[in-house]
Specification:
The chain is an alpha+beta fold. Helix content is 37%, strand content 24%. The C terminus is likely disordered.
Length: 603
């Protein structure tokens, strides 16, 4: 058990280091691209765009005649914000409420009406609640003011909102948002955006590029981790993720550098998104590809935190929570007088639900970021949802899923335990061989192999015996990856656990602010008992090291989704039952085998 456990833990550590290395390389690529972007932007600023100069000339009032008293320039008229509410898919059966704003001509907020669904105890969820950038706002530069006034026409009955604006260059921008009225759950949170640019002037207008803003994403819980909040995009073959720190360099957090802005050219962008742990806003261009991405992080104010995340039973976060806003850059064009150019976008603003996202046509399901264990995570997620459909409880589905996994691994585990008992019986004879030939390693090796052959034991079984534990590693990481992102678990109850997607905190230690989570403690206790019941081999030092594993797992899982601790606790209990059954089985007699069997073994 000790040698196999050490091998398994070593492989897990190697896997974590490999993942971190790949992550650091990706962040370093982001930083390099950002430096190139900044250098290009600095060169671009030295020579002003022709259209900018034209706009400046057009907006400058004519000089007053000589001798006349010039009038002071008028301050721009302040336009008040007007919010129009539209329900989708229909007022009779709403799934979301869209708040359209005339400032920026887009969606100010999306309120997912979870609390209004029959039989749901969940509260409403607000997307794009942090910051003031509308979803679908369009600018020529990513970091310029997005809240220019538009004329607005909103029809709550048809679910269509139209916005229009003409700037000083006589460039008319029209945007038409169309909400889905389809009752199919796979299209509940889709919005169509059609953008049309028209040159209403007498001179050509050149647009170098323009950005479609995704709005913002912030934490979904007060104790949320920045690991889940970030900006993502997909270029048709590769998925790129930037957590809200926009970190670069370093390993395991050491030597990391944080940047406030992520800006880079990115050819063939299929979609871009802002996301938190369970919800995302994804912008997908219809008949073109994006050419750049941009994102900015910012701290969440206490006012926004109290307004959007009311949770009096939770302690205030120690560090400021971060939110992120993003934009997808599109290639520019030139419009001759009277000419128009159009572009369609699909906007998804809803839960990160894999079964919904994988029905979309631009690989939006990659936003789940299952990584290298995606096949395992998807299989476990589909199995859990299938079991939930029949059992009506996600906790019950996780428990049954655990029983199925352990049942499939039982033959291997039983063989491993049988082999370990045989090896324990052979250990005294092996020790005699080591003492007898301690000065002749070559002779010791031959006699050791002969001893294996005499008793029909395969020395490779020492390695293959690790198979049950090795199989648990991808299952563990697959579950770890899936359970922390499965929106289906959100607000799922199980005895004292109010939300299987969050730690099962029952209280806080007074004065310390440390949460008391029951399931991870149960997990460590059952793991310790399981290790005590398991037949042990190896030297005492290795055994002591292995006994520290439960404490490492507690540290690893303590503040993670309680569903993971539930799975691991049930698995430990099942393993102990299996070990009890194995211990009561007849101990295999270690005896020499016939020569024919030895010959077969050598083959």
């Amino acid at each position: 058990m000790d040698r196999k456990g050490i091998i398994a833990v070593a492989l897990a550590v190697v896997g974590l280091i490999f993942w971190q290395t790949q992550y650091s390389r990706q962040m370093a690529a982001y930083q390099k691209a950002k430096q190139a972007y900044d250098a290009a932007a600095a060169d671009k600023a030295k020579t002003e765009h022709p259209e900018t100069a034209a706009a400046s000339t057009a907006s400058t009032p004519p000089a007053a005649p000589e001798g006349a008293n010039p009038e002071p320039p008028k301050a721009p008229e302040k336009v008040e914000e007007k919010i129009d509410d539209v329900l989708s898919p229909s007022p009779e059966h709403p799934s979301a409420q869209y708040k359209f704003t005339n400032l920026g001509g887009g969606i100010a907020q999306v309120v997912l009406l979870e609390g209004k669904q029959p039989g749901s105890a969940a509260s409403d969820v607000t997307l794009n609640g942090f910051g003031d950038v509308p979803i679908g706002a369009i600018t020529e530069h990513a970091d310029e003011d997005v809240r220019a006034p538009f004329t607005a026409t909103v029809d709550p009955v048809s679910g269509v909102a139209t916005f229009g604006r003409t700037d000083a260059r006589h460039l008319q921008t029209e945007k038409k948002f169309t909400l889905s009225r389809d009752s199919d759950y796979r299209r509940l949170y889709l919005i169509g955006l059609d953008v049309t640019f028209t040159n209403r002037g007498a001179a050509p207008i050149q647009i170098g590029s323009y950005y479609v803003h995704t709005g913002s994403a912030g934490p979904i819980h007060r104790q949320d981790r920045t690991l889940y909040t970030g900006f993502d995009y997909f270029n048709g073959s590769n998925f790129f993720k930037s957590v809200a720190q926009f970190s670069s360099g370093g390993v395991f957090g050491f030597g990391r550098k944080d940047a406030p802005v992520l800006a880079q050219s990115a050819p063939d962008v299929a979609w871009a998104a802002v996301t938190n742990q369970y919800f995302s806003t994804i912008v997908t261009p219809g008949n073109a590809k994006g050419s750049a991405v941009w994102a900015r992080k910012f701290s969440v104010s206490d006012e926004e935190l109290n307004r959007l995340l009311p949770a009096p039973n939770q302690a205030a976060p120690k560090d400021p929570l971060l939110a992120v806003q993003g934009a997808l850059g599109m290639s520019g064009f030139t419009l001759e007088p009277g000419q128009s150019a159009s572009q369609h976008f699909d906007i998804y603003a809803g839960p990160r639900e894999y079964r919904t996202l994988r029905t979309m046509t631009a690989n939006q399901s990659e936003i789940m970021d299952f990584g290298y264990v995606k096949p395992v995570s998807v299989l476990l997620l589909d199995s859990m949802n299938w079991l939930h459909a029949h059992l009506g409880s996600y906790a019950a589905a996780i428990i049954v899923l655990t029983l199925i996994v352990r049942g499939l691994m039982w033959p291997l585990q039983n063989r491993q335990n049988r082999m370990m008992k045989q090896m324990q019986q052979l250990a005294p004879k092996m020790e005699e061989v080591k003492k007898k030939y301690q000065d002749d390693p070559e002779k010791m090796s031959r006699e050791t192999m002969k001893l294996y052959g005499d008793y029909g034991l395969n020395p490779l079984s020492q390695v293959t015996g690790c198979l049950p534990m090795l199989l648990q590693i991808p299952i563990f990481f697959g579950l770890f990856n899936m359970l922390g992102k499965a929106v289906e678990l959100r607000n799922s109850h199980f005895f004292w656990v109010h939300d299987l997607s969050q730690p099962d905190t029952i209280a806080m230690l007074p004065g310390l602010g440390i949460p008391i989570n029951i399931l991870p403690i149960c997990m460590a206790g059952t793991m310790f008992l399981q290790m005590r019941l398991t037949p042990r081999t190896g030297d005492p030092a290795q055994q002591k090291i292995m006994m520290l594993m439960p404490f490492g797992f507690v540290f690893f899982c303590y503040n993670y989704a309680s569903a993971l601790a539930l799975y691991w606790t049930v698995q430990n209990l099942v393993s102990m039952v299996q070990l009890y059954v194995t211990r009561n089985q007849k101990i295999p007699i270690l005896q020499k085998v016939a020569p024919a069997s030895k010959k077969k073994l050598r083959r």
